[in-house]
Amino acid sequence: MLDRHSKPQLRLQIVLREETDDWAVLFDPDSGEAYGLDPVGVFIAKRLDGSKSIVEILRELGEHFEGIPPTADQDALDFVDSLMEKGLALI
Would the pTM of this model clear 0.85, i.e. be above it? Predict the structure, then answer.
């Protein structure tokens, strides 16, 4: 189960293609599906390498972006959980 101390990672096959304006697309070549990411999603996805916990990623997020809302912890968990549900990430 995913929690703040989990160290999720994107599946090796997943392609993160950065676009303009700090947005990106996650592409799953197995399914042909593509998912758009905003700058915060890109920041989190780039750190999903299995070496950092959600807590560590959130700390880095707070250092990089200003005005992180109090719901950021839960939002990040929900985001990573959604990537796992789509088969893009795993623990």
Answer: yes
Look at the chain and report how many structural domains it folds into.
1
Could you read off the pLDDT of 31-88 as tens digits, one per residue? Answer: 999 999 999 999 999 999 999 999 999 999 989 888 888 888 889 899 999 999 999 9
Contacts of 9 (CB under 8 A, 6+ apart): 48, 49, 50, 89, 90, 91
Three-state DSSP class for 35? strand
Residue-level length of the chain: 91
Q: Tell me, yes or no, whether 1 lies in a domain.
A: no
Sign of CA dihedral 38, 61, 73, 1: positive
Point out which residues pair with 42 in neighbouring strands. none
Q: How far apart, in Å, do the first and last CA atoms of the chain sit?
A: 8
Domain of 33, CATH number, reads 1.10.10.1150
